[in-house]
Write a structure and sequence with these properties.
28% of the residues lie in helices and 35% in strands. The chain is α/β, with parallel strands linked by helices.
Amino acid sequence: MKTVKDYIRTIVDFPHEGIMFRDVTTLFADPRGMRLAIDQLLAPYVGQHIDKVVGLEARGFIIGGAIAHQLSIGFVPIRKKGKLPGAVISEDYKLEYGEAVVEVHDDAIQPGEKILVVDDLLATGGTAEAGIKLVERLGGEIVGCAFIIDLPELGGRKRLEDLGYDIHALCQFDGA
């Protein structure tokens, strides 16, 4: 029986030499793999009240939209700076090789709403933490953070757990 990890391919030296890129497009392209991932991402949250799913750009949009559809709730994208029309709030964060900014519409989440944050990959946790900060600035309450892949050596899971967030990941890969 295949696991979610079996559907993910590794591309060596992409986007830079020494990087082992974990490609979830092969998971998304397979209907059994995609269903397995969505079902397993949802499993820990069955029975919990969730108002909206927040997806982190860009592959978080794919799984976040599918999860929101499955739960019959709204979906909120957190995007890179300059990609959303209308009024937004922004959050700066550090990357391995510099800095970046993510944004969300300033009316996307109402105070007290219960939010599930999703993305394909948890590496250093910087993008996820920035997304969480945006949700909390709007008054949303984080129910949990769900990822397909965790790269534990990069410390993202520990970073988010140390901040008090519940982390759920379907599989792990060693290395960067």
